[in-house]
Amino acid sequence: MKKFIHYLLVFCFVVSCKDKSTTKLSQNEVVQNTTLTNFDTQINDLMAKMTLEEKIGQMNQYNGFWDATGPNPDKGKSAKKYEELRKGHVGSMLNIKEGVKQVKALQKIAVEETRLGIPLIIAFDVIHGFKTITPIPLAEAASWDLEAIKKSAQNAAEEAAAAGINWTFAPMVDTSRDPRWGRVMEGGGEDPYLGAKIATARIKGFQGKNLSSTKTIAACAKHFAGYGFSEAGRDYNTVDIGTSTLNNVVFPPFKAAAEAGVKTFMNSFNELNGIPATGNTFLQRDVLKGKWNFNGFVVSDWASMVEMIAHGYAEDEEHAAELSIKAGADMDMESYVYVEHLANLVKRGSVKETLINDAVKRILKVKYELGLFEDPYKYCDEEREKAVTGKQEFRDDALDMSKKSIVLLKNKKKLLPLKKKNQKIALIGALAKDKTSPLGNWSLAGEPGSAVSVLEGLQKYKGNILKYAKGVDVITVDSPTGWSDKAIINETDTSGFSEAITLAKKADVVVMVLGEHGIQTGEARSRANIDLPGLQQELLEAVYKVNKNIVLVLTNGRPLTIPWADKNIPSILETWQLGVQSGNAIAQVLYGDYNPSGKLPMTFPRSLGQIPIYYNYKSTGRPNGNNVFWSHYLDEKKTPLYPFGHGLSYTSFSYNNLKINKVNNREVKISVNLTNTGKVKGKEVAQLYIHDLFASVTRPVRELKGFKLIQLNPSETKIIHFTLTEKELGFYDNKGTFVIEPGKFEVFVGGSSDAKLAQKFTLE
Ligand code: NOJ
To answer: 390 and 131 in contact (C-beta within 8 Å)?
Structure first.
């Protein structure tokens, strides 16, 4: 408390009689009788002392690429940035992964060398874990387990905060229907309802109840908005979508994020209907800060302000700055256009200073809530960092999350779970031995090689004879980050095939670990083909020729097209990229020590031509037909390979007795009986979908509106209850107004979006 008052008083010191821009407020200049009322007064007092340049400095975020603990940079961009920092012209820094020592050194410059001593807010892409890398967000989404997802974010926040981080650029809440887009690995999948629930869970996990705790960090809902709809799945590409999709599919997870109290939003690289998101007033001022009443701040995406020139929307850098501030972007990440042009724009009268004041106030408020004014070094405790980083509890939770994320796609011959004794197991695939790929993309602070491989996980089971052969390399990469634009897929080297085939011939069961390397998804990792990369399909078919008892363990960051495998391979397990505990989780599921319960958060297409394919599509006027004139393909089914919500278990479940119990006051109560009809205990994600049969704006054939995770012993039955309220029954019309229309609805309940059990009701 003493420190708190000390810093506030320093900021509140009245300098009216001195030249604002040059007077350095000494730490001793404490005004004894300042009354501290509330946040607004304190920030207003502080802002009254700031020069225009210092205010704009708060709106400037730099990449922390230079070593603040080493010699000061004396030339080039780093030197300039260093000077800006010392002048108080930097409000935030990102990408400091070296931990407390480095953060403290930078914070020290901000606090001790700048005139007003305003602390920096330190940002980082804590996307799935910090050092203890957890499953990629798409994998966590497959758990449908909101408590586990929240816990995972909570742990990530604690570990990051202990390393000096105050703010994560997560969660990414972009709904996407296009698995070619590499960033689907960062999100919650294709569904706005599930996406909104996950967004809320992750924000609550990161931010906790008290943002100033040293275990929590500020979250950031990104990328506002429409990024997941980048045309043809090509990253950064144009987005052109109508109001219905925008309001009903893209916005809901963002709105949920705002309602959950997320402290920041990030705008986006893409243009939306002709206007780049970064310069988009409708998105940032009208919807976010207006309609949704968001009172945190908006950060641009990396250089997205200056990129508006390439978009053909801004004439030059100065124009980019003007468009961005007017549209509601509060902080400039690495475009340098605010720090270089905003002051002139204000002085010329092109930009009102009130806009700057509003942005700065929003930024200072988050710093204040983080407790940085109370103690700028409160996140900089090296002892805590040592004690917290990689602690066992995080690893245990990461294992739990990993197991919950795994989806059993197919199990025909009941090859799974594997027998624990007297089996000869051939483990094949370069990814089975890989200890870095399971970390996935966006694992910036993770240690390469820190994941338990599938080989290591399986080796813990001693009852069988386990032998390994690589078969084929997936990538031939020259940099561990995969930043190289050179071809990284191995398309030529088949030298490992024969060893794998020989091994498979002698095995009772072959476990093949195939898929995408961790660096093949994520930002800028769009793929025009989403099959097994490189020579893995050839390897799979070659092994199949000598042994048909194959368990295919997929590891990937997006849905893949695997029609051949689906047709021929008896058991397929989707394991995504699971982080540090990957191999342990996969082994426990393969051996049945954990019964899988994950469900797909994204549709798996049969072939590329079906994309975009998603479960909540519209009917069309010709959904079925006998002759050629109906909505279909001549050369492909129109159904997916695996639908949204699909996922099997080592037991089986049956649903019956679906009842609509009450329809009044626009509230519908629904119940259904769920029975475990198999031989082992298992968990099921019971899903409820509705279809609004006719409406003033057509509604999808199905929309997820409820789900429950239910654990059942063999032969046990439970009655599951769902309630639909106006929130679930209504939709946004084409003017963006939420409406609830009376009429007929159909309800479906089951274990996937293909649920067959249905009932109808009418809303008065
Ligand atoms: C660009 C990405 O689009 C964004 O998601 C990320 O947070 C920033 N870079 C910072 O790394």
So the answer is: yes
